[in-house]
Design a protein that fits this description.
The protein has 278 residues and is of the alpha+beta class. A hairpin with a 2-residue loop joins strand 2 (111-117) and strand 3 (120-123). It is built from 9 helices and 12 strands.
């Protein structure tokens, strides 16, 4: 068996030597694809937060009910359904569609500003030179996303085109457009009015193309739900861990801070309601 194995190995090495150029070509192609992907794909940043869950008396969620020692044991070994019930309830709030909908509307993140520089795309978020405004009800009800392209000229004037993408990007429909206009301006479409205006980052003497993705609010909330990770910070504590992947650092930080702020508002309202009933 050892002799046969040795012969097979020699044959394999010999075959590789004869066709070395195929392996070299495959290696070069794979390296080229990897380098290309690195340069064209959007950077992804991870944002983390931990929220301490307290009861209305300011004590940690289960410590006030069962005693910190007993609660810790029950959480560690998952004994009974009541060991960490308060944290379980708060987990549901953080994961709820309603909270994520409120974050989308509060931060206006159903409008995503993308710019391609050379071959790479960037999520401008807080650095966008233009802003798009419309009625919230419009983005609550559109069935498909819309895309607005804003070409900024060195003169400071812009060309704007509002597009309804077709299936898999085929058969795009231009809903309305404007050429060589000064901001602010307004576009009228079958879905309603869109206002386009300058942000503090707008500058003349430079040419830029900004693509604005206008998404359905519910769809954007679902997208956040897929990107965010919510779990126990520790089996022995009363904290909740929040993690998020985002294509812009501040974008991810603002989303997590927004979710925490809305949770605190819900918690304070619940506490005030209980105080009024007592």
């Amino acid at each position: 068996m050892k002799e046969n194995d040795s012969i097979d190995l020699r044959k394999y090495i010999s075959a590789m030597r004869k066709r070395w150029y195929w392996y070299l070509i495959a290696f070069i192609v794979m390296m080229a694809l990897g380098i290309t992907y690195h340069f064209i794909h959007m950077d992804v940043y991870r944002t983390h937060a931990i929220v301490l869950i307290e009861d209305d008396n300011g004590e940690s969620g289960s410590a006030g009910k069962l005693g910190s020692g007993m609660a810790s044991v029950m959480r560690t070994f998952s004994i009974g359904g009541m060991g960490n019930s308060s944290v379980d309830n708060e987990l549901l709030i953080f994961q709820s569609h309603d909270v994520q909908m409120k974050v989308v509307k509060r931060l206006n993140i159903n409008r995503t500003y993308i710019e391609r520089r050379n071959f790479k795309k960037y999520n401008l978020y807080d650095q966008t030179p233009i802003l798009v405004s419309c009625a919230d009800s419009m983005l609550d009800t559109i069935s498909t996303g819309l895309r607005m392209t804003v070409d900024i000229k060195k003169s400071g004037k812009v060309d704007i085109e509002l597009i309804e993408p077709g299936f898999f990007g085929l058969g795009n429909t231009t809903l309305c457009s404007k050429k060589d206009v000064t901001l602010p301006t307004e576009l009228n479409s079958i879905y309603g009015k869109f206002q386009v205006y300058k942000s503090k980052h707008f500058a003349t003497n430079e040419e830029r193309t900004i693509n604005v993705n206008l998404s359905n609010t519910h769809a954007m909330a679902n997208a956040i739900h897929e990107l965010i990770f919510v779990d126990y910070a520790s089996k022995k504590g009363d904290g909740i861990y929040l993690g998020l992947k985002a294509t812009n650092k501040k974008y991810g930080i603002d989303i997590l801070n927004g979710i925490i702020a809305i949770y605190n508002e819900i918690r304070m309202k619940r506490k005030n309601d209980r105080a009024e009933q007592s």
